[in-house]
Amino acid sequence: MTEHKDGRSGCPLAAVDRRLGDAHRLWHEAETDYFDPDAFRLKSQLAIQTLRSITFILQNQKRRIPSFDEWYGTTNGDGLWQKRLRDIPLMRWLVEARNKIGKQGDLEAESFVRAEIIASHLDEGPRVEVPARLFEGPKALLQRIPPGAVSEHVRAHGTLKIERRWVEGDLPEFALLDALATAYGHLYR
User: Fold this and answer.
1) Cα separation of 28 and 177, whole Å?
2) 41 by DSSP, 3-state: which?
3) What gap in Å lies between CA 17 and CA 113, rounded to an integer?
4) Inside any domain, residue 8
5) C-alpha distances out from residue 91 to 49, 59, 81, Å
6) What's the Cα-to-Cα distance from 96 to each of 25, 84, 89, 108, 171, rounded to whole Å?
7) Looking at the structure, do residues 143 and 65 belong to the same domain, yes or no?
8) Whether 177 and 97 share a structural domain
9) Is 125 within a domain?
10) Do 97 and 84 share a domain, yes or no?
């Protein structure tokens, strides 16, 4: 691959590949911060903006890609890939979400938390539902176990199962990280 005087790589897709890598990294950072609402909000919204920028970067390289307009389409929107992406509701949501983040503020993300103590691998084993609040971490959930609710055996051998699901108000059928991963897959193709 040759390097141009202006720093551009000889490959017209090098910047697209780099941005895909950035989106992938941000997705993993959002996953790591899943139980930290502010950090999760920041990383997931950065991932949305990064994913959305991929098509802009691709379109910027159109002069360097033979038959780009027929393959992707930019002038009239009738190119194969531009139409495919526009026909996917999730990808239309990505465009709208990026516009909302950039022009109006944060997305309307909601989190649902469920915690339970599981003391047996059998479905009929003892379980204790633990009251959970949106911003609580695992340590706070453990402290909220009602006194006397679990035996010493459960305390010693039980597992605290915490489920959290982040959903964006305009895309309730997807967990937010699932939506970002699926959008990444479409753009990668």
Assistant:
1) 9
2) helix
3) 35
4) no
5) 12, 17, 12
6) 22, 17, 11, 13, 11
7) no
8) yes
9) yes
10) yes
Distance CA 102, CA 62 (A): 25
Burial profile 58-76: b = 16 or more Cβ within 10 angstroms, e = fewer: beebbeeeeebeeebbeee
Same domain, 60 and 146: no
Write the Ramachandran bin of 41: left for phi over 0, alpha for psi from -120 to 50, otherwise beta.
Answer: alpha
Residue 117 in domain: yes
C-alpha angle 68/81/50, rounded to 5°? 95
List, for residues 108-163, the tens digit of each pLDDT value.
888 777 667 677 666 555 556 665 666 667 777 777 776 666 666 666 777 777 77
The two tokens of residue 40 are: 């999760």
Q: How far is the C-alpha of 172 from the C-alpha of 28, rounded, in Å? A: 21
CB 112 within 8 A of CB 167: yes
Torsion, CA 38, CA 106, CA 15, CA 64, rounded to 10? 170
Q: Look at residues 68, 43, 66, 44 and name the one whose alpha carbon lies nearest to residue 55.
A: 68
Tokens coding 103 = 């022009």
Q: Where are the alpha helices (DSSP H) in 79-147?
A: 80-86, 89-103, 138-143
13, amino acid identity: L
Question: pLDDT digit string (tens) for 17-69?
Answer: 999 999 999 999 999 998 888 899 999 999 999 999 999 999 898 888 888 88
